[in-house]
Amino acid sequence: MTTTEATPESTPDTSTATAAVEAAALPWADVHAEHFKMLRLAPLTTDRATGARPLRFVQFGYAERHDRHHSLLRMVVQLPGQRVRSEQNHLDIWVDHDKHRVHFGPGNSLEIEPANRGIGRFLVAQAAAWAKKKWSHYRVDGVDLANKDALNEATRLRRDHFLRIQGFDVAYADVQHLKGNVQPGKVGDVLDSWNTEKVQFVEILEAAQMLQQADQNLAEQEVKLRKEEEKVIKFKREDSGLRFTITCLVAFTVFQAGLLIWIATHR
Q: Which UniProt keywords apply (predicted)?
């Protein structure tokens, strides 16, 4: 199941600076992730809206580019054995050094699969930490929130909670909470933290240790299974012996009964 989480881009009130960025041909269109890390998605209780949330391991990839006018951080989350649409699990953060502006892309929303696992907050936190290193004083462009996310109250509340907990200011132009937007702000106001109980980095040595432990546990389980199979074979052998003994006793009892009847009838 896929949820949409809004990320800050341009609004009509603040579109002047962003329009200039969009009008110009942005560089690095063909940049793909170059550095990769493993993420552990902790097992969580089943959610009524998004379903089961078992333990999963996914791959976080990123690449960055810089020139005199722009900087780019491109991030993706790849799911082993599962393909997602190109707009899913993808977040760009663009920096315009000429205008001291920052905006998120590639669209005006962040679509995550699997949903409700903490990946959205993780990506935004990584973007904020990257931008704060050098451009904490830059302005983050606002964004008009998608109306479709406000049609379901639970979805809207989840989206607004995601934005506000990361430091964005969400405002609505109507009492029905349909026309919402994220107000422009400073890069320094965006939080670079996420729920580490849901999403954790897994280092190579840690992953190797996990594999080693899993292999050891598997070997131990195989030994236990072999012992249980030997017990079952032993019980089956004993059961067959008992069945043969019982059969012999029944046959002997029938013979004895027949013999007694024959003696009693031939006196």
A: Coiled coil, Membrane, Transmembrane, Transmembrane helix
Q: What b/e readout covers 181-215, taking b as 16+ CB neighbours within 10 angstroms?
A: bbebbebbebbbebeeebbbebeeeeeeeeeeeee
Among the ranges given (3-17, 144-158, 228-242), the one the predictor scored with the smallest mean pLDDT = 3-17
Q: Which two tokens stand for residue 168?
A: 């964005």
Note whether 11 and 142 are within 8 A (CB): yes
Output the six-digit token pair for 153: 């109250």
Q: Which CATH class is domain 35-202?
A: alpha beta
C-alpha distances out from residue 188 to 132, 145, 185, 204, 236, Å: 6, 22, 8, 32, 72
CA–CA distance, 180 with 173 (Å, rounded to integer): 6
Cβ atoms of 23 and 1 within 8 Å: the answer is no
DSSP assignments along 88-99, one per residue: BTEEEEEEETTT
CB-based contact 109:5 (threshold 8 Å): yes
> Does the pLDDT at position 50 exceed 60?
yes
The residue assigned the tokens 């379901």 is 152
Mean pLDDT over each residue of the chain, to the nearest integer: 85
Per residue in 139-173, pLDDT (tens digit) is: 999 888 877 777 778 888 888 888 899 999 888 88
The reply to whether omega before 184 is within 30° of 0 (cis) is no
Task: Kindly report, residue by residue over 55-79, the tens digit of the pLDDT.
Answer: 999 999 999 999 999 999 999 999 9
Domain ranges of the chain: 35-202, 206-266
Residue entry with tokens 């699997």: 114
Contact partners, residue 128, CB within 8 Å, separation at least 6: 166, 167, 187, 190, 191, 192
| pTM for the full predicted model | 0.73
